[in-house]
Design brief:
Elements (H helix, E strand, L loop, with lengths): L1 H7 L1 H31 L3 H56 L5
Helix pairs in contact: 1-2, 2-3
């Protein structure tokens, strides 16, 4: 569309470029973070930071892989923290039983 307008009507080409730029910015900066954030339970600002950092470091491939990788690592960290808390609680309960302390 833009190439056709470049040869036939330069004013329409500029209008088409501006329209495409606006649509791309709205999609990339507003819609995508809200949709992905809602589905994966990731804050939109976190998504924006991940996309910016991963695109600067690894390019397009980094942008594709950044959010799923973050979500997986976040769930692993939650699981390990929960496992640690349960272990700590069991150790405390065992210690209390050893000294004859009863928790109600």
């Amino acid at each position: 569309m833009v190439i056709t307008y470049a040869f036939t009507d330069p004013q329409k080409m500029v209008a088409a470029l501006i329209y495409m730029l606006i649509i791309q910015q709205v999609d990339g900066n507003i819609l995508y973070p809200r949709i992905v954030g809602g589905v994966m339970k990731v804050h939109p600002i976190t998504i924006m930071v991940l996309l910016l950092l991963s695109s600067n470091i690894y390019g397009v491939l980094g942008m594709i892989v950044a959010i799923p990788t973050y979500s997986i690592l976040k769930e692993i960290a939650k699981f390990l923290a929960n496992l640690y808390d349960n272990h700590k609680e069991a150790q405390q309960q065992k210690k209390n039983e050893e000294f004859g302390i009863i928790n109600k």
